[in-house]
Specification:
- By secondary structure, the chain is α/β, with parallel strands linked by helices.
- It folds into 2 domains: 42-174, Endonuclease, Chain A, CATH 3.30.870.10; 223-429, Rossmann fold (3-Layer(aba) Sandwich).
- It has 16 helices and 16 strands.
- The chain has helices spanning 3-30, 42-53, 77-85, 97-108, 154-170, 174-183, 189-202, 207-222, 236-249, 260-271, 298-309, 327-332, 335-339, 351-361, 387-393, 422-437, and strands at 58-65, 88-93, 112-115, 125-131, 135-142, 145-152, 172-173, 225-229, 254-258, 281-284, 288-291, 317-321, 342-348, 366-370, 374-378, 412-416.
- The strands form 4 sheets. It has a 7-stranded mixed beta sheet with strand order 6-5-4-1-2-3-7, with helices on both faces.
- Strand 2, helix 4 and strand 3 (112-115) form a beta-alpha-beta unit.
- The longest helix has 28 residues, at 3-30.
- The termini are far apart.
- It holds the Pfam family AAA_33.
């Protein structure tokens, strides 16, 4: 072969390659690429997560990880868990056993984890890294292969943050999930103790994680409902809101209910004659009302009771606030199914202190028109209580009769709120929380 033929062959090959490359580039630029199509090794994927989790500019991590694995499942996982424990991190996982075990490990390190029962192990997972360089790592685990992709910048980050917020609201704290598993269907403490020991073995619970599960178990077993009662002006709403904050700090989900909205709706229906019986309620200047007999308020309690029943089997604590002179009769409206898993906080203050608070607060309802057919009434915890009611019906209550009542044996707690003393109130509420949890600390040796 002469040199000219050799060079022609080489140039022809190069030309063909260039033509094919040009066609490929042109096709690629016109074609929408298939996302999450490139498979990488598990180690490469985890190494990327670890690097991003150690970024000095990182402020927080949020993620939905259906197939989260415990630290024993790979050499990089302990380092990833340690990195997550050093930042503000929150994760939603599935209820698969391995995910629960990994979630329990993270909870033991102080990381917030929730469980979404509808998640499947092969669903997409993502980590949202917030900070100086916001980005998202999305992964599709296809059998044994990981197909991740990185999206950099605030725009994709905001989309996944919004999705995470929805997932977080729908999920249940892992401590409550494990506590509910220990409780099962039976209230027997010996059975609960054995189940708790089994959970400790199955999920290798650390001391910190086990203590958190016990706290949730205590409330879900004996205080799924906490009634906050007392006369108007005693400070029930303050106590309820502060207790909700304390339970939230323990990662318990809290629902708050009260009877005033139900009472107000009964009042409105009677005032505009939507009910055949329009008697019993009297309008008072300032957007308030009074009744001729406290028994007129019982239908509102029954409606409230039905609402509480919708939450009593969920892994959450429901705080229920109401004011009655006949506290015993009001509580008995809720029935055995609720009362058997309830605690009662009775808030006390002197008549002079209550009168002063009632006079100072008095926020009327706000009425807003929404379009052609909507009217919204916004009520306040600090609603007006008529002077006639405060000086006659609410002079005192029968809370003293609760203590000897069998249903409330060991379930009644008094909170003195005479002084506007936030530190003292916190101390008394901490005492209530400890009273609920203390009997359960000895369940597991």
């Amino acid at each position: 072969m002469v040199w000219s033929q050799f060079f022609v062959s080489v140039l022809s090959g190069v030309a063909v390659s260039l033509v094919l490359a040009s066609l490929r580039v042109g096709w690629t630029h016109r074609r929408v690429p298939l996302g999450l199509s490139r498979a990488v090794t598990r180690r490469s994927y985890l190494a990327t997560i670890l690097t991003l989790s150690r970024d000095p500019g990182l402020e927080r991590i949020e993620g939905v990880i259906p197939s989260l694995r415990p630290s024993t499942a790979g050499p990089l996982l302990p380092d990833i868990q340690a990195a997550w424990a050093r930042v503000d991190a929150r994760f939603v996982v599935s209820e698969a056993p391995e995910s629960l075990a990994a979630g329990a490990e993270l909870a033991g390190k102080g990381v917030e984890v929730r469980v979404k029962r509808s998640l499947l192990a092969d669903d997409l997972s993502y980590h949202v890294f917030g900070g100086e360089r916001p980005q998202v790592v999305v992964n599709h685990r296809d059998g044994r292969r990981d197909r991740p992709s990185r999206l950099v910048g605030p725009s994709p980050t905001r989309i996944f943050q919004a999705h995470f917020a929805d997932a977080w609201r729908c999920a249940v704290p892992i401590e409550s999930v494990l506590a509910d598993e220990a409780l099962g269907d039976g209230p027997d403490r010996a059975v609960v103790a054995e189940r708790l020991r089994e959970l400790r073995r199955r999920y290798a619970l650390s001391g910190q994680a086990e203590a958190a599960v016990v706290r949730h178990l205590a409330f879900l077993h004996s205080a799924r409902v906490v009634f906050v009662t007392g006369l108007p002006g005693a400070g029930k709403s303050l106590v309820r809101n502060r207790l909700a904050e304390k339970l939230g700090a323990l990662r318990l989900q809290v629902d708050q209910q009260g009877d005033y909205a139900y009472i107000f709706s009964e009042f409105v229906k009677r005032m505009i004659r939507l009910e055949e019986d329009s008697t019993g309620f009297v309008a008072v200047s300032g957007g308030a009302f009074d009744v001729d007999d406290e028994r007129r308020l019982e239908p509102a309690l029954r409606r409230l009771s039905r609402q509480v029943l919708t939450t009593v089997d969920k892994p959450m604590v429901t705080l229920v606030e109401f004011a009655r002179a006949d506290v015993v009769a009001a509580l008995l409206v809720f029935g055995e199914e609720i009362l058997s898993r309830a605690q009662v906080i009775h808030v006390r203050a002197s008549a002079a202190r209550r009168a002063m608070r009632l006079e100072a607060r008095a926020q009327p309802a706000r009425v807003q028109v929404d379009g052609l057919r909507g009217v919204t009434v916004e009520l306040s915890d600090n609603h007006l209580v008529p002077a006639t009611a405060a000086s006659s019906r609410y002079v005192g209550d029968d809370a003293a009769a609760l203590a000897p009542h069998r249903v409330f044996d060991g379930r009644l707690h008094h909170v003195d709120n005479e002084l506007d003393d936030p530190v003292g109130l916190d101390r008394r509420l901490d005492g209530f929380v400890d009273d609920v949890i203390r009997p359960y600390r000895t369940l597991v040796g």
